[in-house]
Specification:
Elements lengths: L2 H28 L21 H37 L19
Helix pairs in contact: 1-2
């Protein structure tokens, strides 16, 4: 496939990925569930060399978002573990309604 045809095939794919990444970052910042998963279109030619830098930047940004989401997940997991531990150490005989409702997990 000629380079121009390969660029024409890849351009909408990279544009879509860039838009999806921006939307996902905005969803995460707003506390919303990210959108649908992306599936690569079938039959794409090899990535043209002149689009490689753009694709690598996009990949770097996706990997950074992935690391951020993993850190958020780990933080939530740690907070849930702390909250469960605090529940186990509630005074015997106290009902859930009588137990403390707020725990400062950052203290």
């Amino acid at each position: 496939m000629h380079d121009d045809a390969a660029v024409a095939a890849w351009r909408p794919v990279l544009d879509d990925l860039t838009a999806r990444l921006a939307a996902t970052v905005e969803d995460v910042r707003a506390g919303r569930e990210p959108g649908d998963a992306w599936h690569p279109p079938a039959g794409l030619p090899p990535l043209p060399e002149r689009l490689r830098a753009e694709a690598e930047q996009l990949l770097d940004a996706q990997q950074e978002l992935s690391r951020h989401l993993a850190a958020m997940r780990d933080d939530v997991r740690g907070r849930l573990t702390s909250a469960r531990s605090a529940q186990r150490f509630a005074a015997p005989g106290r009902t859930k309604q009588a137990a403390a409702r707020y725990v400062d997990l950052d203290a």
